[in-house]
Amino acid sequence: MSTESFKALLKRALNSPYAETDIGLSLFRTCLETMHARYMEDYELKGPSLELGVGDGSSSMFINGEKSGAISVGLDMPLGMTFETKGLWWHPVATHYRSYVGGNMENIPFAGAAFETVYSSETMFYGMDMRATATEISRVLKPGGKFYCFNATEQWFNFDAVLSQLKCNIPSFSVPTDDEFVSIFEDTGLTCERRSYFFSPAMEILLHSVVDTGAGRVAEHSLLNRAPHELARKIEVLSELLEHEYDSSSGGFHHFLVFTQTGDAKENKIKGTDVLSFDPFDHLKCPVCTGTRFDFEESDIKCSGCDATYGVVCGVPMLVDEKQSGFSSIDLDASVTAPINRHLGYAQKTAGTIFNKFSDTVTQMLEQADGNALDLVVMAEQEIESKVLISRQTASALRYLLKRAYPNHSVSMRILKDPKESQPMLEPSGVPTLALYFSGGTALPESFREALQVRAVHTVHRVSLDIVK
Question: Which of 147, 373, 383, 390 is the most buried if burial means most Cβ atoms within 10 Å?
Answer without folding.
Answer: 147
